[in-house]
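Researcher: Last one for today. Full complex below.
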Amino acid sequence: MNPDFALYLALFAPLAALPLIAALAPWPNVRDAAHIGTAALTFALTLNLLHLMLGGASPSLLLFEIMPGLPLAFSLEPLGMTYALLASGLWVVIAIYAVGYMRANDEAHRTRFTIFFALAIAASLGIAFSANLFSLFVFYEVLTLSTYPLVAHKGTPEARAGARTYLAMLLGTSIVFFLPAIVWTWTLTGTLAFQPGGILGGRVDPAFAPFLLALFAFGIGKAALMPFHRWLPSAMVAPAPVSALLHAVAVVKGGVFALLKVAVYVFGVDYLSSSGASVWLCWVAAASLLISAFIALSKDDLKERLAYSTVSQLAYVTLGVALANQMGIVGGAMQMVMHAMAKITLFMCAGAIYVTAHKTRVSEMRGLGRQMPFTFAAFLIASLSIVGLPPMGGAWAKWFLLMGAADAHQMTMIAVLAVGSLLSLAYLVPVTASAFFAPARGEPSAAMKEAPLMLLLPICLTALGCIALFAFAHDIYVFLLHIDFLPLPEAVAP
Amino acid sequence: MDAAFALIAGHANYWLVVILMMIGLYVAIARGNLVKKIVGLNLFQTSVFMLYISMGKVEGGTAPILTGLPATVYSNPLPHVLILTAIVVGISTTALALALVVRIREAYGTIEEDEILEIERDVGSKS
Amino acid sequence: MLQALLHQLPVLQIVLPLVAAPIVAAFGGNGRGWMIAFATSLIAFAVAATLFAEVLDGSVISYHLGGWAPPIGIEYRVDILNAFVLVIVSGVSAICLLYARASIAAEVEEKNHAFFYATFLLCMTGLLGVTITGDAFNLFVFLEISSLSGYALISAGAKRDRRALTAAYNYLVMGTIGATFFVIGLGLLYMLTGTLNMADLAARLTGYGDSRTLRMGFAFIFVGIALKLAMFPLHLWLPNAYTFAPSAVSSFLSATATKVAVYALLRILFTVFGFDSAFEANVLRLIVLPLAIVAIFVASFVAIFAEDLKRMLAWSSIAQIGYMLIGIALLSHEGLMATVIHLFNHAVAKAALFMVAGAFMLRAGTTSIPDLRGIARDMPWTSAAFVLAGLSLVGVPLTVGFISKWYLVQAALTQNLWPVALLVVLSSLLTLTYVWRITETIYMREAPAGVRRSEAPLSMLIPTWIFTGLSLYFGIDAGLTSMAASRAANALLGASNLFWQ
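Model: Here's the assembly. Have a good evening.
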């Protein structure tokens, strides 16, 4: 298949499904099947792209020029491919889960929900394949807007308030910081294309580089760097599949992915480390990492605890970026993958517990593990992956980040990474421990049983995925080493 | 003293225009009666007409009608033409304004600004 | 034959609606008026589009009215900037008229329809005239034609709410004062130069230097136009006028009247005065720029707390005019591009939004925001148009609002005016707030029990979606608008010698 066409297909498959899903509204079963089918198709198309890419193809696509010199263009590189595989692969899992969850919970407006879900994934793929900062920004905003109806789904005053915070913070940071950062870059360099080795080197006064980086780091609000993390807990009002989408796959990973792209292809890792522009970011990320971990410890609401855990885990990626060396970036990208797989499992478990037992608080879940052994076992596996214990995938991410910190001679950061892991152990493992070993409160109701199969199946899949990633980490590592950190030599003429 | 006299007498037309203009503007802004406002607006506009006309006057010039005499000095006719147009605009404005006042009177039963405002405020607080 | 006709296009642009107006007034009963008016506006749009195509390469068409050569005779002068505005005005007129049929039938008494459409055509004549003319006094006359018919159009809202009458009256008083100020300033310029043709004025003022008369002339003209374009703090007439006017009129005037005034300001500032003295630049930098920023924030805050959709949109207009003024006050190529693009953006987005308000008025009988709860369920298409046009107002990517914001921020950054860039982006959040407040009300809140409202008729939906579609299309493919804006900015800046650069 023509590689360019393959890219085109992968980008437009979810979009093309939108009218279909809308048209199938009167037949819920067919519509939901179409949803899962689209997800599977998109994943297959993305895998096809990976196959082409490993075969040496480098597809690119130019849709149109919005303004002179500012095209909506797409291309493939290892980071984007990783994020795209993550988004489309986990979409399949989440689509199955969402169907089960929405039915079991009897939620309304399911067609609207499905459409915006697919739109959000389409936007994520747009982010993943963006060939320039401008395209990335466009899809970044589309992603924000398309997830708003998902967060506000229930329409209750709390849902509306939460969604309002969500939208205001994400659009706000992107308009107030991200957009000026992009325009500034444009006025400095005259280009916004992602280039190996970056475009800013030598073009921006090193004294201003930290400010520009700050505009990017805080402007990409989806990366939830403190103090712009409030939207994440606010968005907890959303139904569980949405939380999984927001907190594990599309939105937060879109944020850290954008940050990685900016570091590697706009600033350039070399420029970032030689100018020292990112030193301050290490400290902010470290603070964000630790503070949110402490907040997570104090939360009794399971979803809220998971939300703060996400803030903390995202700070790992930001820290990786701030370390400004190859291992830091690779570790950050690895953390992006491992955390996604683990966190999606955790959120799906939380949803399953809510649907089956109608429990949201950790303190109410004592003894629940005996009724729902599979759910809680999956929860434990994912927790351990977040903590970074072998044989879970998360171990590798933490390992590479530690290597990055060592390369940068940042001993403090090594300590921060270690403490962060300990804290995550402290806020995640007790959930399972008390569910299995603490005595249940009151009479265990006879009706209590394991979650429905439609929920359980995806949960088990991703839990196994956490383990599988441990085995495949080497392949990912090799793949990520293909990132072009240095400017391409001028004289490479075929 | 002479300089002061020259400043006043030499620019007599401007002084008159300015005074008339200020009276007109004051009336248009300060009066509460909608018809009186229109009167003020008219005064204001008229002062501008006079500004233009006086500006077109050439010392010793006659009305710009071709007489055939080569030595005749004419006043500048262009301002007259312009003001003819402006007068037409002014009349239409006055006509429209008066028509609106009539409609306001029908709708509110008064043409005093403060009374109208009070009525509107009552409506606003009720709805 | 065709060639001869093409030569007469500039005058046809004005004469057609001017002649059609009395015909509509005389024979416009039983819906014929609407048909004639609509047909006329379509032809006017075709004429404007042809003119635009002709001057797209940067050439200038000069038409001598009655064969009298300028500067004695009146000249119609079409360059890319005013051709662009002509297209906007005539296009918006045509689409608004399409919309007006159903909306006006509900909001204006039957017996007045013929007069309404006649007045509409007159207003359009005036606006097109202001845009096309190259003669400063002629500009005043057309400005008054458009304003007078505008007052009458606004007062047509009296059937629904008598406050339309007082709104129109207040607008009349303010508008007349503004127009008279303009004439005073023009008189002073005439004293200095002895000419009224804008190109001639510019030529004679070049190298004239500075004098008190010139400054006074500038000040009077500036304040006069500022009143017409509702520049803060001379905006007091606008909120009531747009709130109580019939919806089609609000849509039409908000999209064209203030835009044409902005155009007139651009023309006077750059073509006539051309920044020969530091005085004018200082006025812009030290007075207009701060006022514009204050306008954006104050008006947006008022809009956030407005209880009525149309009033909110009216205040939003005042804020949006602030962006255009910032673009002008930055005195740079990008700044002017931003102004011109925003002119277009605001015209289409605000027209669409007022049309949505009109559709709500038709079906729900009110535009009071709390009464619109959950209306998206019953009127999905109208509501979706609101969200998309609203996002364009905010400046979200893929809408034309983003393009203008992009250039505005870029213009501020290239001049190292950091605070301005920051305030511009910050103010977008206020815009987002008031747009989202409505979005949330109409989508996410439950409709009052037992209330069902049907979707707006197609004759209203189509115009609304034409505008919405335009604001999306030109957000995705901004090639044409940015090219036209760039050339217009070049034309404006080429005419003036920016001495500080």
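The domain at 2-58+72-126 of chain B is CATH 1.10.287.3510 (Helix Hairpins). The mean pLDDT of chain B is 84.
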